[in-house]
Design a protein that fits this description.
The chain is an all-alpha fold. It is built from four helices and no strands. The protein is extended and about 60 Å long.
């Protein structure tokens, strides 16, 4: 049988994905709290809060991009999403390669936590 991909199905799937990402954020932040140095875990603006806010902003921008791509119709939705997604992925890979040496842990910071 041939089913149509309705607007209601698109909205409900987007909602489920958003809630699922939010639910996964709790365990992720729990793991982060065990790996970051204590100096970054103190105060109100700690690494956990900043990572949570960055994730929330990322999801909101992603939902906005999907809604913008779907505004003109669902027929070309995939084609409108993959080109920007490819650019974002390539940019992220480039940034990681550029900053890779700074992403390595400094073990002298970990000695301060004990």
């Amino acid at each position: 049988t041939s089913e149509t991909y309705s607007e209601t199905r698109f909205i409900m799937f987007g909602f489920v994905m958003f809630v699922s990402c939010s639910c996964l954020e709790g365990p992720t932040m729990g793991l982060l709290s065990k790996t970051i140095p204590k100096s970054l875990a103190s105060g109100v603006l700690n690494a956990g809060l900043l990572a949570t806010e960055a994730g929330t902003i990322g999801r909101v921008l992603g939902d906005f991009c999907m809604s913008t791509a779907a505004y003109e119709g669902l027929d070309e939705l995939v084609n409108r999403l993959f080109f920007p997604l490819g650019i974002i992925v390539l940019t992220s890979i480039f940034v990681v390669f550029q900053a890779y040496t700074y992403l390595q842990p400094r073990y002298e910071d970990e000695d301060e936590d004990d």
